[in-house]
Amino acid sequence: MPIQIFDEQHNLFRNSLRRFCENEIAPYAEEWRKQGEVPREIWRKLGDQGFIGYWVDEEYGGAGLDFSYSVIMAEELTRAGSTGFNAGFSVHNDIVMPYIGMLGSHEQKLKWLPKCCTGEYVIAIGMTEPGSGSDLAALKTTAVRDGDDYVLNGQKTFITNGYNCDLIVVACKTDPKADPPYKGVSLIVVENGTPGFIKNRKLDKIGLHDSDTAELFFDDCRVPAENLLGREGDGFIPMMKNLQQERLISAVGSIVGAEGMLEITIEYTKTRTAFGRPICSFQHNTFKIVEMATEIEMAKTFTYALVEEHLAGVDITRKVSMCKWYNAELANRVAYHCVQLHGGYGYMEEYQIARAYQDARAGTIAAGSTEIMKRIIGSMMGLGED
């Protein structure tokens, strides 16, 4: 079924991006995995080509486009073999920048968004803490008003782009006694180099190696009060709202990743022989490949239908929670079977399928675990706690 959200303008964007990926990303993806990060130069090159912040109003450095272009970015970056960079890019472009766009004042947008669009700034979001992942209302990081400043204290972990970020939007408690607790959550922008903002270390992950993930500390970190996004206590609801988009882009990445794994596996099984015949010709293997292809096609149809609904402004919270967990789990099943179909070679790091297998695992955890997605769905179905 043709995907209706893409038109000729999208095709021009995709063709230009694909050429960029073929020249500037795909040849270096493995090198970046070994380095554990993507060079800052690539962000500037993306910005120069208009591939960052294209949804931002022209006044602040963007082109006023919509989320459909982010779907294309996720597709092409994943196909270029840079799943980790796609994760970092999505955090920058589709998760954190929208907070500034939604809550920022005119002055804040002028100060930060143009540099985010050019790639001069790389940004992160500080939500997850050692003791609270998906339960954002239970944050322990505090921001206490002191004159014209806020003083931040706390710790964040598993922060994508955290080690190399120039800005981080920190979710914190400005009113730890608020009832209910979520009303005490605020978002404050902290700039790199601010005293007390400590980038402790890069975390060593099992996959997504071409994306830096950091543990961060705020130790009496003094930030100008003008860096508050919106009003005090306004942080929680925008985070919940923006999670729809975050989970949708995660679902797109998972299904494109699954599709890519199957493609390389089909090609491999057509050329690899056993007992004098291609291994894809054995009935068990044929059926397994057909089953995966069918599941991917069905999931892809659901995913892109949700993209259309999201673009139309529909609340997709329940459906996107379904899509996010299903696609992530599907990608992991596909990864398992594709490695198996590669045999011993599938266990070798030099083979793309082995690297894709490692990368797929994060999809069931990041942006809300499978279990949290099911809890949200169950609650919305009247099956559990609100």
Describe the structure using short key phrases.
Butyryl-CoA Dehydrogenase, subunit A, domain 2; alpha+beta; Butyryl-Coa Dehydrogenase, subunit A, domain 1; 15% strand; Butyryl-CoA Dehydrogenase, subunit A, domain 3; 4-stranded mixed beta sheet
SSE topology:
Blueprint lengths: L7 H17 L4 H7 L4 H9 L19 H12 L3 H21 L2 H13 L4 E4 L15 E5 L2 E12 L6 E7 L11 E7 L5 E6 L10 E12 L3 E2 L6 H36 L1 E2 L2 E2 L4 H29 L5 H26 L9 H9 L9 H11 L6
Parallel strand pairs: 1-4
Antiparallel strand pairs: 2-3, 3-7, 4-5, 5-8, 6-7, 9-10
Helix pairs in contact: 1-4, 4-5, 4-7, 5-6, 5-7, 7-8, 7-9, 7-10, 8-9, 9-10, 9-11
Give a structural overview.
The chain has 386 residues and is of the alpha+beta class. It has three domains: 114 residues, Butyryl-Coa Dehydrogenase, subunit A, domain 1; 110 residues, Butyryl-CoA Dehydrogenase, subunit A, domain 2 (Beta Barrel); 144 residues, Butyryl-CoA Dehydrogenase, subunit A, domain 3. It contains eleven helices and ten strands. Strands 1-4-5-8 form a four-stranded mixed sheet. A four-stranded antiparallel sheet has the order 2-3-7-6, covered by helices on one side. Strands 9-10 form a two-stranded antiparallel sheet. Strand 9 and strand 10 form a beta hairpin. Helix 7 packs antiparallel against helix 8, helix 7 packs parallel to helix 9 and helix 9 packs antiparallel against helix 11.
Short description:
This protein is of the alpha+beta class and 386 residues long.
